[in-house]
Automatic annotation (TrEMBL), chains A, B:
Belongs to the class-V pyridoxal-phosphate-dependent aminotransferase family. SerC subfamily. Keywords: Amino-acid biosynthesis, Aminotransferase, Cytoplasm, Pyridoxal phosphate, Pyridoxine biosynthesis, Serine biosynthesis, Transferase. This is Phosphoserine aminotransferase. It is found in: Cytoplasm. It comes from Pseudolysobacter antarcticus.
Length: 360, 360
C-alpha cells in the first residue's frame, strides 16, 4: 500500500511533510523529553509553540492588530450556537444568508438563542448560486449578518466579500480558510473548523474584532464566552494541544509554499482544470452557476446513477480516494483543499476522461 | 535526549507503546492509504474504529447497557456548563459538593444555568478532606448531585461512591477514570477530559444513563444537547478523530495490562510508595487527610520554599519532569497516572531521599 490522492471533504488530506515531521517527533518533541501531546499547555515550551502558531496564522491572513485570534474547540457547529449567544441578545434579530446545508445548520443552531431572519436564500434554486447582494433583505439593526463562505456539500462559494454596511459580517470559513488571500478587516468575525485546510478535527480557529467582544454577556458560562477565551489566550481550559501543534506545522508549510497568494494561484489552476474538463466532457456535470463555484469542493454527477458505484470502485483502485458525493446531492465530490496538489487533480481528470471514454 | 519520567498533571504521559504505534501508522493507517487524521468520520473504516473504542471502554469500565457512551469535545469545563443546561431546569436546584479548585469551577460554570446549592464544602479546611457524607445538606428535590471524583490541584479523591438516594449523582472523573474499577451504575452520568488517563486533550468521554437523556431540553442548540449526541452516535458534527483513535489505542493498552483491576493494583502500590516515603521522611509533607488522598495527584511541600527551585532544577536533570506544584497550593506535585510506571515513582522516591539527605 502507499498514500493515495485523497479527495476527502473532511477530515481531509494534510501535507505529507507535516505528517512526516509529526511522525519524527511523536515520542520526543524538541527538548521536551516527551511527546508534544504529553506536556502542559501552561509550560513555557507549549506557550512558545502556541504563540508562534498564532503569529504564523496572523502573517498568512494578514490579520489586523485589532483582531483576536483564538484556538478553540467544538467544531464550527458549536460556534453556530456560541456566536449567537455572544453577539446577539435574545430579543435582537440576526440576518442569515442561506446558501447550502451548512448555512441551514447555522440557522438551526442559532434559532434557540436569537431572532433569526433569513435575509436571502437560494433554497428555491437548490443551492446552485449565491443570491445577488441586491436581493438581500438586510435589517440595519441586526446584531450581525452571517454567511458560510464555502458550502462543502453544494459546492457553492462566495468569491467576493459582500458589503453589509455597518452591521458586523460573520463568516464560517471552515472549508476555504487559507485557500487564497482574504481581507479580514471586512469581517466582524471569521471562524473555521480545522479539518480541511488547517489540521486535525477538534480545533476551531476564531478571529474576532475586539470591539465585538464587548458584547459578550457576562451572564453566560465562561467557557462559552469569547471575551473570556480572548482574555485567557485561548487557555481558559486545556486546549487541544496536539491539534494546535499540528496546525502550527501546517501554517509553516503554507508559508513555505509562498503564502496565500501562491496557494491561491495553485488553487485557481486546480479548479480551472477540473471544472474546465467537466464542462467540456459532455459526460460529467456540475450544476453550480459558474460565478459561485467552489474552489475547494467540486460536486459532479455522471450521466446515470447506475455508473456511480463503478466509478467509485475504479477510482479508488486508481489511487483516487473518497470521491463519493454527499447523500444530500448524490453523485461525486472532489474536495481539492490546499494539501491536494495539482498533480492530484490532473490524475483525477485523466481517470475521469478514461472512464468517460469507456462508459460514454 | 531521551524520554523521561513525566509527572505532568495534564496533558499527561501516554503509554510509550501507544505513541510508537501512532508513530508507525501516522502516514498510513490500516488499509486507508492515508493517515487516520485524513479520513472521513462517516466512512466505514473510522466507524469501525469508533465502535471498537467504545466497546473496549465499555469492557474496561463494565458499563451497564442502559448507559450511552459519548465521545465529545470542549474539555470537562464545557461539560460543567452543558450538564447543568441539560439536566436542570433554570428554576431547579442542583447540589454541589466542593472539594477543591475543580468543583469550585464546576459551580461557577453551572451558576448562570441553574440554582446551585453548595451542599457541602471543605473550603474552610483548605480542601484537605472530603466532607463526611453525614454532613451533606442534600435537597431531595435537586436535579442532581455533582462531585469531582479527584481534585488534581489539591490532591483530594473520593475513595467511595457517596450514597445520594434517588437523586442522580454526576461526577467529573477526568483525573481518575480508568485508574481502578468503578461501579458506573451508581452514577447518573460520569464524564472525563481525556488528557490524563485516556489520550490527547480535546476529547471528553461522557457516560450517561439513558433515562437522564429524556430531560435534555429541545429548546437548546443541538450541539449542546446530550440526547442529540447520543442519537447521532457522537457524530452530530465532526468528532476529534485523531484523539478518538488514540484513546482507542490507550483502551487496548489498558486491557493488555489486565484491565482496571490490575491497573488499580499498580496504582495502589505507586501511591503507597510515595505517600509512605513522604510521611516517614520528616522532610516532605502532604497536607491531605489520609482517607482522602488522591491516588493520581500527590502534592507535597519542602521544609522551605527557598528549596523549591533547587528541587525542580535537580529533579529535571535527573529525568523527573513537571514536578512543579500548582500556584494555588505551591510546592511540588507528582501526578502518577496510569502511564507513569511504578519504576517512575521509585525513581522519584530515590531522588527525593537523596535530595532530603543533602538539604536536611
Amino acid at each position: 500500500m502507499s498514500r493515495a490522492f485523497n479527495f476527502s471533504a473532511g477530515p481531509a488530506a494534510l501535507p505529507e511533510s507535516v505528517l512526516l515531521q509529526a511522525q519524527s517527533e511523536m515520542l520526543e518533541w524538541g527538548k521536551a523529553r516527551a511527546s508534544v501531546m504529553e506536556i502542559s499547555h501552561r509550560g513555557k515550551d507549549f506557550e512558545a509553540l502556541a504563540a508562534e502558531a498564532e503569529k504564523d496564522l496572523r502573517d498568512l491572513l494578514d490579520v489586523p492588530s485589532n483582531y483576536k485570534v483564538l484556538f478553540l474547540q467544538g467544531g464550527a457547529t458549536l460556534h453556530f450556537a456560541q456566536l449567537a449567544m455572544n453577539f446577539a441578545r435574545p430579543d435582537q434579530t440576526a440576518d442569515y444568508i442561506v446558501t447550502g446545508a451548512w448555512s441551514e445548520k447555522a440557522v438551526k443552531e442559532a434559532k434557540p438563542l436569537t431572532q433569526v431572519r433569513i435575509a436571502a436564500s437560494d433554497e428555491a434554486g437548490k443551492f446552485t448560486a449565491i443570491p445577488p447582494r441586491a436581493s438581500w433583505d438586510l435589517d440595519p439593526n441586526a446584531a450581525y449578518v452571517h454567511i458560510v463562505a464555502n458550502e462543502t456539500i453544494h459546492g457553492v462559494e462566495f468569491h467576493t466579500v459582500p458589503d453589509v454596511g455597518a452591521v458586523p459580517l460573520i463568516s464560517d470559513l471552515s472549508s476555504t480558510i487559507l485557500s487564497q488571500p482574504i481581507d479580514v478587516s471586512r469581517f466582524g468575525m471569521i471562524y473555521a473548523g480545522a479539518q480541511k485546510n488547517i489540521g486535525p478535527s477538534g480545533l476551531v480557529v476564531v478571529i474576532v474584532r475586539e470591539d465585538l467582544l464587548e458584547r459578550c454577556p457576562k451572564s453566560i458560562p465562561k467557557i462559552l464566552n469569547y471575551a473570556e477565551h480572548a482574555a485567557n489566550g485561548s487557555m481558559l481550559n486545556t486546549p487541544p494541544t496536539f491539534s494546535w501543534y499540528l496546525a502550527g506545522l501546517v501554517f509553516k508549510w503554507a508559508k513555505a509554499q509562498g503564502g496565500l497568494k501562491a496557494l491561491g494561484e495553485i488553487n485557481r489552476q486546480k479548479q480551472e482544470l477540473l471544472y474546465g474538463y467537466i464542462d467540456g466532457s459532455g459526460f460529467y456535470r456540475n450544476p453550480v452557476e459558474i460565478s459561485a463555484r467552489s474552489w475547494m469542493n467540486v460536486p459532479f454527477t455522471l450521466p446515470s446513477e447506475s455508473l456511480d458505484s463503478v466509478f467509485l470502485k475504479e477510482s479508488e483502485a486508481a489511487g483516487l480516494l473518497a470521491l463519493k458525493g454527499h447523500r444530500a446531492v448524490g453523485g461525486m465530490r472532489a474536495s481539492i483543499y490546499n494539501a491536494l496538489p495539482l498533480q492530484g487533480v490532473q490524475a483525477l481528470v485523466d481517470f475521469m476522461r478514461d472512464f468517460a471514454s469507456r462508459n460514454g
